[in-house]
């Protein structure tokens, strides 16, 4: 590598792992690394993590990248798990573990949003969003709330840490802010709602565009990461809008399916989509580039498959082999709602498991049902988007989905998804779309690109699955929807 070459570092702070990627001056990924970590559940329904675990994961992940490549970094961008909150002092030091999006402790505190259908609550409000979690903190940990100066989104805390708590690093971006249940759909903080909830306005950082320069890399952090000090730090964006940016979504109506711990289906829009009406669990958010997207966000994809795999004592290789060798059961169904659900039904109390099992059902049959159940949950979200887009009917053509995310690699799983969703799948030739999107934002913040130039850097995609007609599969999906409607009455909302 010669001295004229330039690299941009993308950091994706995920729920179960932190990923880093180095992208060159043409937008091509050159190196990638990741480090996994676990969440803490000190009480049932809680989801927390010590933020130092994120820091250690970042240092370890960067150490796995080639040193010569790190030395060429000229900008750093951030992608982060959305929702959740990190409460800090004035210097950005966390006062308690971060509270994350799967957390349901604030499930009984959503009443404050019930009548607000024009502002923050025009999007679904879930217990794991910053608004409900901060309301819980105010009631249950008042001493920490009094001591707090900032309530930061996860990726914003990490940027502050890298900037050495420099003043200009304490910002938020619209794509993350609009998903806190404390901001209007365009991302602007809803100060009237914040006051009504009794939350201190001082907690909420000023907004900056995702591609804006928001601080520079502190010398101590630079030494820890092996990256030059003074590198520009982009504001960054939420993981889903970063994935859309990194995947090259650019046309009005482009659609993306991401699968990981959860699953998201988003459809891009140049102007604000209409507020969800028919389906309570759809979202309309700001994109990393300043546009919009409509989204269905399903909580239980990888998390449900991992639970099923563990219960059945499988390793992943054998789980795939047995599941896709087994015939589908005409009676067995798996509801994947192990941690509640957001889209298309805003149902934090939803629960799941297998129903209709017979004495002759093997482990493989049970695992096959788990894969189908997760695919059916994704289809419910896609059907809601189709119906919302078509103004109350399911006739809107969302016939092609770009595919991203580490949970969608196996070709048999991809084919099942295509069959269930009734859409062709085009896998993006970039397995780390959110991390790449973050790196591109680093390039924008450093002045290497303009935001409107990024579309020309879109990665290629490969057709990996075409939907096939399957009447029996359609019947199983109809049974799945019916079972969910019946089972949800067993677990009324708290």
TrEMBL record:
InterPro entries registered for this protein in UniProt: ATPase_NBD, Carb_kinase_FGGY, FGGY_C, FGGY_Carb_Kinase, FGGY_N
GO biological process, one term: carbohydrate metabolic process
One Gene Ontology molecular-function label: kinase activity
Keyword annotations from UniProtKB, A to Z: Kinase, Transferase
Keyword Ribonucleoprotein: no
Domain Carbohydrate kinase FGGY N-terminal intervals: 9-246
SUPFAM superfamilies: Actin-like ATPase domain
The keyword Cell membrane belongs to this UniProt entry's keyword annotation: no
Family: Belongs to the FGGY kinase family.
Listed name of the protein: Xylulokinase
Organism: Paraburkholderia eburnea
Lineage, opening ranks: Bacteria, Pseudomonadati, Pseudomonadota, Betaproteobacteria, Burkholderiales
